[in-house]
Amino acid sequence: MFSIFNIWGTFSNVLFYLSLVISLAGLGGNTLLLWHLGLHIKKGPFNMYLLHLAAADFLFLSCQVGFSIVEIALGYEDTLHFPVIFLWFAVGLWLLAAFSVDCCLNYMFPSYCNLNCRPRHASLVLCLLIWALTMPAVLLPANACGLLYNGMSLLVCLRYHWTSVVWLGVLASIACGASKLLLIYGSCCSSQPLPKFCKMAQCFGILLFFCRLPMVVYWSLRPVITFLLPFFLPLATLLACIDSSAKPLLYYMQGRQLRKKEPLQVVLNRALGEEPQLSLGGLSLPMS
Questions:
Q1: H helical segments located in 75-153
Q2: Measured in Å, how far apart are the chain's first and last C-alpha atoms?
Q3: Looking at residue 111, what is its pLDDT?
Q4: Contact at 8 Å (CB) between 286 and 120?
Q5: In whole angstroms, what is the distance from residue 162 CA to residue 159 CA?
Q6: Of 109, 114, 96, whose CA–CA distance to 46 is shortest?
Q7: Which terminal Cβ of the chain has fewer Cβ within 10 Å, N or C?
Q8: So what's the pLDDT on residue 276?
Q9: Angle between helices 232-255 and 2-39 (to 10 degrees)
């Protein structure tokens, strides 16, 4: 019995340090993205989502690195670790859902991109609403369930917790469903090639399914999983760090051209820029 616990403890430690290394690498990539998207690329409706998504990933990885260093120094984990990193994780999940749905509507209904039908700053306003609404959606259940240094109130905890579980399940389903719909519609129902942002939405859906869902499952069933699978949280954290750290590499792979060496800024401009282009109905993509 003790050998099993030792194996689990060693496995958790390996996952902990892997998460720290990947988070440090991801911080560098997302810092570069924030600098490039914020200062060197003209803002459009889609790369506005990617800018805020990079900010959410940066905060998630920063908090993960900070709490990990504190845990190494003090020898124990602060109780604020999970609710704080999950706050930025949830912001990223909501942004992924909004980005995927917007790409899906843009591809399936070209008139959706008409400047007369789409408010100019709709993406920016939606992103700001996501930041504002996610905080109470995560912090209220965390506070009621005793994750923020306060005592737990069972009935209030259950009410807030299951409301947040339904909310997160809907977001994950929307994001995965939109990326799957893009795949089916693009391969079976349309002769037009997928725009680059729709391809990104497909990749985000795959990453979400494999790397983000474990964290959502842990939030939903935290007491049971903590008792039965004590290594599940380190594993879910590692997968979430991989998801947040992989996006800069994904953008680079999307923008680079084979057998051609180009400056990094040129590659990122190709991957993340929103030049006006003709959509399916002959309408140009509006710039925010």
A1: 81-108, 122-144
A2: 60
A3: 66
A4: yes
A5: 6
A6: 96
A7: N
A8: 53
A9: 30
